[in-house]
Every structure is written in C-alpha cells, then in structure tokens.
C-alpha cells in the first residue's frame, strides 16, 4: 500500500450536505466499513471505549425525529424554519452513524490509574474522533457522502430508550451518510506556515 493512497483518501473526505438515499454500496458493506473502523482505530491504554450505532432507513429518519422533537421543545416556533430545513436535509440521507463513549470504561481507567484520572475523558474523545475520521475517510473512498453533526445531548435520552442502550453510553456525534447529490464547495486553507513548524530537519 502506498502512503499516497491514504493521502488521496484524506483529500476526498469532505463535509457533504446534499445527500440522498441512493448509497453507492450496500448496507452490508457500510456495516463492514464501520466494523473495521471500530476494530482497528487505536485508543489510549487500549481502552476500546468507543461505541457505535448504525441506523439505516426508517431508523435513520426516526433518529432525526428525536432531534426534531428535542429542538422544538427549546426553539421558538416562529424561529424554527431554518432548523426545520436542516432537519429535512439530514432526513433525506440514507443513514446515521451514532458515536458514543462508554463512561463505565472511562471511570474504570480513572480508578485504576488515578494519576491520569483527569486525562481519560479527553483521551476517550481523542479515540472517538479518530474512529470518526477513519470511518469518514473510508466511506469517502467508497463514494459515500457524509457530514458530522453534534446535536447531543438533546436527543440522547430518546435514542438510548429506543435502542436499549446502556446509561453509560454518552453520545458524542452523529454522522449523516448517503449518496452524493451535490459535491462540496471549494475548500479554503489557512497558510501552512501559520499551522506547522518543522525543527531539526
């Protein structure tokens, strides 16, 4: 495997918001991609605390129904239209991948290694983010569009109840995926010399 293949996949990975239900690969293939990311993404102390739920079809739309219900409870009706338009866009996609962190695992490590206790929640989020990136990049290489949302904690309780999830699972992000209806726009980059320093070379 050439490292350029990984770099090319990283460049293809973009936030795609115009999605439809026409996935270029099967639900089974999507599931295998998710399984690979969950298995092979590293985590501090090999904690393996990241948890994932994949919701296809009607279950995907149900997830966004929970988000809508939670938002309607806090957003005034006369200001809800922009939010409603976003939710329609998310529901138009094919599936949602929900990312969680198991707080029981995190707390267990805090108790086992008290000197690092304050770091374990941060490290857990690092592992979760790496899982998101590994999965997102692989999906992009498969021609699947995706965008990442963070409506937690608003729908957390409803989602946990619907799918029988343990109380220890803390929702961290929602990845909306589907067929690409329209590509992402041109990406703007901040100057590298403001973001990178190389010493000793």
TrEMBL record:
<keyword id="KW-0963">Cytoplasm</keyword>
<keyword id="KW-0560">Oxidoreductase</keyword>
<dbReference type="InterPro" id="IPR029479">
    <property type="entry name" value="Nitroreductase"/>
</dbReference>
<protein>
    <submittedName>
        <fullName>Putative oxidoreductase</fullName>
    </submittedName>
</protein>
<dbReference type="Pfam" id="PF00881">
    <property type="entry name" value="Nitroreductase"/>
</dbReference>
<dbReference type="InterPro" id="IPR000415">
    <property type="entry name" value="Nitroreductase-like"/>
</dbReference>
<dbReference type="InterPro" id="IPR033877">
    <property type="entry name" value="Frm2/Hbn1"/>
</dbReference>
<dbReference type="GO" id="GO:0005737">
    <property type="term" value="C:cytoplasm"/>
</dbReference>
<feature type="domain" description="Nitroreductase">
    <location>
        <begin position="12"/>
        <end position="178"/>
    </location>
</feature>
<dbReference type="GO" id="GO:0034599">
    <property type="term" value="P:cellular response to oxidative stress"/>
</dbReference>
<dbReference type="GO" id="GO:0016491">
    <property type="term" value="F:oxidoreductase activity"/>
</dbReference>
